[in-house]
Amino acid sequence: MAQQKDGFTPDFRLSQTSAVSSGKDLPFWMTSNQNGIYALHNSSYFLLQAGLNRSLDRDTLKKWGYTYGANMVYGIAGTSDFQPNEYWLGFRFHQLILKAGAQSDPIIYGGLSSTNGNMYRSRNARPVPGLSLSTTGYIPFLFAKKWFSWRFLYEEGILNDKQYMIDGHLQDIISILFLIYNASS
């Protein structure tokens, strides 16, 4: 069982991966669902990743919290490629979170299905940079706190890949209202 760190100290990760294929390119199953870190195509690949991550303190007794992180990737496959794959800074005030940057969503259900989220959040591409405003989770709703809970997410992304369009934006608004039924009362 993993121990929880005191003080939410940042995690630092450093990894190196080497891959060789007998074909013209590495197999799809090896390079897919990796947040776009395999940017070059070749039969051999050397990949170096360095990352720093500080999780958001979800202690609801504290008014403020913050999170930050980055994941830098350097790949060599015939030529070289450096990319800041993930980078973000976020603040929590009570039950609202404001984040800026590009951060991939956590993997849920072991990544077994592409229906785990929206298609633009596919793990086959780099995370989309932008701003997001969300709640920390489900919040009891106004006057009917025993019956309704509410969750909100607003995102404004900047499509910085100029292959398809220039200066494109991506908006995502999710507002969920749940009815809570307690049969014992």
Low-pLDDT segments, ≥5 res = 1-5
Spell the H/E element sequence: EHEEEEEEEE
Shape: elongated
Instruction: Provide mean pLDDT, rounded.
Output: 78
Could you tell me the number of beta strands? 9
What would you call the structural class? mainly beta
Tally of separate domains: 1
Compute the CA-based radius of gyration. 20 Å
Helix percentage range: under 10%
Number of helices: 1
Largest sheet: 9 strands, antiparallel
C-alpha end-to-end distance: 36 Å
What's the short story on this structure?
The protein is mainly beta and 185 residues long. Helix content is 2%, strand content 48%.
Structure description:
The protein is mainly beta. The protein has one domain (6-32, 45-179). 2% of the residues lie in helices and 48% in strands. It is built from one helix and nine strands; from the N terminus they run E-H-E-E-E-E-E-E-E-E. Strands 1, 2, 3, 4, 5, 6, 7, 8 and 9 form a nine-stranded antiparallel β-sheet that branches. The radius of gyration is 20 Å and the shape is elongated. Mean pLDDT is 78; it is low at 1-5.
Structural topology:
Elements: E1 11-20, H1 28-31, E2 44-54, E3 64-77, E4 79-93, E5 96-102, E6 130-135, E7 139-140, E8 148-159, E9 168-179
Antiparallel strand pairs: 1-2, 2-3, 3-4, 4-5, 5-6, 6-8, 7-8, 8-9
Question: What features would you highlight for this structure?
Answer:
185 residues, mainly beta
